[in-house]
């Protein structure tokens, strides 16, 4: 008797962090496709164009956008969240844990219930422009590994992030989310250090310690989709297939 692996596509939903649209995954997508995966790069509300009105866009809008991207997909779904998108994809899992096969956090992680990414911003703040490279480095967001051309493209295509998303509160209600496997790709912070800091309290206010997490080191800066796209794609593919059993041999 023989069995075969499912021929259904394995969907990789790629959600970028602050200031980025789906374009940010442009150098990663071809590698995932070459590996037989089906990637979907998401542009979240307010991140499509500089001229977009971002005044009314909320964290819930971003969660809904990812849920809408997942809804029509047939087959297994792996969510990939970079940086600030970690809070978004974790809440997507909470809304529908049975639908998600695995979550991959890229230099990111899930927030605890009630936390937000940028608490304390002035109420009148509408959007957050991309800071200078020096300001980002001071915040711990290294641009290591991105060449001058890559930095110029990043700066030219970046869009201010909606402040309502940054200050929005994460709402978690379904403990089944804790059973969804997680891979954390550590790029600007070594996994050994992250494990020690992965607590519900400061500085990260994360649920990582409560999850079935596998940690992977990919040393580079905060934006590996620009600095090491092929290597990032390889780690995403490995994580996506981590719990797929190989076909059984003929008995």
From TrEMBL:
Pfam families: Abhydrolase_6. Residues 12-234 form the AB hydrolase-1 domain. GO terms for molecular function: hydrolase activity. It comes from the Bacteria. Gene3D superfamilies: alpha/beta hydrolase. Transmembrane segments: none annotated. Keywords: Hydrolase. Signal peptide: none annotated. InterPro entries: AB_hydrolase_1, AB_hydrolase_fold, Sec-Metab_Biosynth_Hydrolase. PANTHER family: AB HYDROLASE-1 DOMAIN-CONTAINING PROTEIN-RELATED, ESTERASE_LIPASE_THIOESTERASE DOMAIN-CONTAINING PROTEIN. This is Alpha/beta hydrolase.
